[in-house]
Amino acid sequence: MGQELPLQEGFLTTRVDAVVNWARSNSLMPMPMGLACCAIEMMAFAAPKYDVARFGSEAMRFSPRQADLMIVAGWVSYKMAHTIRRVWDQMADPKWCISMGACASSGGMHRCYGVVQGCDNFLPVDVYIPGCPPRPEAVIHALMDIQEKIRNQYSIEQDGIYGRDMPVVAANRPTIVTPDGEHAISPAGLYTQR
Amino acid sequence: MQFLQLDFIRSDRGLQIMPEKLTNGIKAPKTLPFEFVPQEAETAVLNNPHAKATTLVDDVLDAMEASFGTAVLERVVYAGERTVRISTDSLLEICTWLKETQGFTYLADLAGIDRFTEEDRYEVFYNLVNMTKGKRLRVVIRIDEESMTAPTLCDIFPAANWNEREAWDMFGLRFEGHPDLRRMFMPEDFEYHPLRKEFPLLGVPGSMALPPQVPTGELTQDPFPAAHGSKTPWSFEEVESEDDV
Amino acid sequence: MSIINNTNFSETLKFWPRHNEAIYRRLESKHSWVENGGDGAAGDPLENEMILNIGPQHPATHGVLRAVVKLDGETIQGCVLDIGYLHRGVEKIAENKTYQEFMPYTDRMDYLSPYSNNVAWCLAVEKLAGIEVPDRAQWIRMMMSEIARISSHLIWMGVGLMDAGAVSMFLWTFQAREDIYEIFDEVAGARLTVSHSRIGGVATDLNAAGINLITKFAADFPAVLAGWEKLLNRNRIWIDRNVGIGHLSAEDVVRMGMTGPNLRGSGVEHDIRRFEPYLKYNDVDFIIPIRTEGDALARYFVRLDEMKESIKIINQCLDKLKTLQGPVRANDAKKSSSSKNEVFYSMEGLIHDFMYTDTGVAPPKGAASYHAIEAPKGELGFYLQSDGTGNPWRARMNSPSFTNLQALETMMEGGVMGDMVILIGTIDPVLGEADK
């Protein structure tokens, strides 16, 4: 709200959070980064039988500017990785990433020179889905996991701290200190469940 | 409890005659080979159940030998297929002859092979098809490691274009006269030729960079940053910089 | 003013600068030269040509295909394709796996019809090692390959029409695909990437539930297809978008080495099922649809008719399978995996299973052979060279999408941007297979 310091947690922000999170989780617009066979199962997940429209995610937006959930479906080659990262950077906050399938999560069966061994080497992934390809029910489960993750976020504060220096935030929040005096969780980690 | 004395069992292979030992009790097997000895091609299967009629092209090979004599170096027959090895210099001549007089107008496939021998390390095979008469022939040339060049087939068979580019990308074989010899699959910045036998399966670490971990950062040179403990930061954790638009 | 000379690619692009420079250089060298316009300093923007980069992330590129086009208004003057965004080096992986271990990789090549890739690989290995496949297995393989053909053409139709604007077709064809997925689920255990075919036969025989599902599908599908035909075959919009687009004469397609429905849409009568019959295609009655117009509409009709012929083949297979009993895998333990009964209840079977998994089929040293099938996209062939061990020395995959995509560059030139999606759809590439 135009202040220097981020908002403190309180009754009002948690109520607003609840509404904002409810809206965000029920209107996720996936950006399908459909690369390979998992893309076919992702299309099946949007198809009538495993209808994803009932979760509010029917509008598959291929433009990163209009999407907030990127589903990396298929193996990521080194050449493609830069494109994916660019597309991810173009997406507006808040955004989440699902790594669908074994190949996107860890390289899968493709342990070779051309495949990045997991898209978490260059993307911050929220939910991983195992499977080769995962059944559409598994992708729906991952979507529901993301919805739960969103509902547990301190959204207003997170939107407020974007781009700010971490120490300012850390001064106002309790930190968890282990017996050796180290921070066990990074200050940013207190805003979302990692 | 004894197994039922049945002649047939229904297994996942379908109906099968019960192996003898199940009806007679446990018996030591007669032979138990623990090592496999590779066979030579000469002792191979002569009557292959999958051999096709299209590869019976001995008449074409005889005509080729009659016309080109010494350029035809070797003829191999296996599984009903005919492979003819010719000298690299006569490739264009023989292919033109095959296309114009013998009717092999369709190039089905072209690729390189790394034989990993001292002499004549690389091989390039051409899979030619005569659609009207129903014939398929394989022509092979050998290239040694010093020269690494072969004449291009793009003028005779334009279908060879991308296949030769792929052979350049994967093996480093240059094709003289190719209109556009660029890499096919790997980016131009990549410096190796992956299908060579000495190139490791997992690649050379550092040969291809990963994207930066933050938009304003440097390219990640380590191919396994997640395994080495680095976690890509969330976008709301990134510090705002003047470059941000 | 050439864009190549005025742009320092290492500054503007942080990744793959030499790669992108090579692509722009190729685009420039194909035609006269490329204007660096836009600010008014180098000239009137309306007089200049624009370089547009399409992909690799794009909803209509059938996977990750990148096309850099030079546009004059809406007309495409030059086009350079950049593939390799899905390259994983599967030929190199093959050199490190046994023939049976490699089966799942073939699923992921043409992932729209995985069963036919499995069958192609099995046939190639069986030809190399001289393994005879029992009849029942051949009929099962043929039937499942035709179901895979229908499933691939369904995606072609759904995605092609969705790209052209008719999104409902996508939903309908995917609903039909779900029926096919149920069949694969019942018969092979997996929906998409099946790996049901084994060297020497198939993994398991069909059970009654599977046969019922296939019979029901073969009975219901023609009516569904007829409904779509009623919508599309005389549809003014669909016909106008397709007629005359991507015209290739018979000489062109043979010269450019294209394969599959692209050949048959231009009048060339070439289909591996008739050219080099494999499995039991000689014993079934079906025609090969051929059209002579050579444009996108002709290819649309060819694929539509192929689906109907596939149903005919499936019905004949079902009839034959009712009466033909027998094993579904070759009985040679060195050439095909042992049945589970033997593995679990006999010492020999256990050892054979171990040896088969560890070493696998070991064709004679120096042997080399090529076997092609008519995959839904075209001629899918594997050229295998053996060195006497259980791993191939060289496994070359001749994928139809790779050979078909070569022609896309020439097809795009002269067209307008709106035709691009139709052209990509009519060639029907799958980038997983094109990029190996």
Describe what you observe in this structure.
- The complex is a heterotrimer of chains A (194), B (245) and C (436).
- By secondary structure, chain A is an alpha/beta fold.
- Chain A has one domain (16-159, 166-191): Rossmann fold.
- Helix content of chain A is 38%, strand content 9%.
- Chain A has a 4-stranded parallel β-sheet with strand order 1-2-3-4.
- In chain A, helix 3 links the parallel strand 2 and strand 3 (96-100).
- The model of chain B is unreliable at 1-36 (pLDDT under 50).
- In chain B, a hairpin with a 2-residue loop joins strand 3 and strand 4 (81-86).
- Chain B has a domain at 45-176: NADH:ubiquinone oxidoreductase Nqo5 subunit (Beta Polymerase, domain 2), CATH 3.30.460.
- Chain B has helices at residues 20-24, 58-68, 91-100, 160-171, and strands spanning 8-11, 14-17, 72-78, 81-86, 106-114, 122-130, 135-143, 149-151, 174-176.
- With 245 residues, chain B is an alpha/beta fold.
- In chain B, strands 3-4-7-6-5 form a 5-stranded mixed β-sheet.
- Chain C folds into 2 domains: 9-82, no CATH class; 90-130 and 133-329 and 363-434, Orthogonal Bundle (Cytochrome-c3 Hydrogenase, chain B).
- Chain C has 436 residues and is mainly alpha-helical.
- In chain C, helix 6 (114-129) packs antiparallel against helix 7, helix 7 runs antiparallel to helix 14 (296-323) and helix 14 runs parallel beside helix 18 (417-427).
- At the B-C interface, strand 2, strand 5 and helix 4 of B face helix 3, helix 4, helix 6, helix 15 and helix 16 of C.
Short description:
The complex is a heterotrimer of chains A (194), B (245) and C (436). Chain A is built from seven helices and four strands.
> What percent of residues of chain C are in strands?
5-15%
CATH class of the largest domain in chain C: Mainly Alpha
Shape of chain C: globular
Beta-strand proportion of chain B? 15-25%
Largest interface: B-C, 74 and 92 residues
Mind telling me which CATH architecture of the domain at 45-176 in chain B this is? 2-Layer Sandwich
Largest sheet of chain C: 3 strands, antiparallel
Q: Which word captures the global form of chain B?
A: elongated
| DSSP, total strands of chain B | 9
Our measurement of the CA-to-CA distance between the termini of chain C, rounded to an integer number of angstroms, reads 38 Å
Which fold does the CATH topology of the domain at 45-176 in chain B refer to?
Beta Polymerase, domain 2
Instruction: Please estimate the helix content of chain B.
Output: 10-25%
Pattern of helices and strands of chain C = HHHEEEHHHHHEEHHHHHHHHEEEHHH
Structural class of chain B: alpha/beta
| Largest sheet: number of strands, sense, barrel closure of chain B | 5 strands, mixed
> Mind telling me the C-alpha Rg of chain C?
24 Å
Oligomerization category of the chains in this entry: heterotrimer
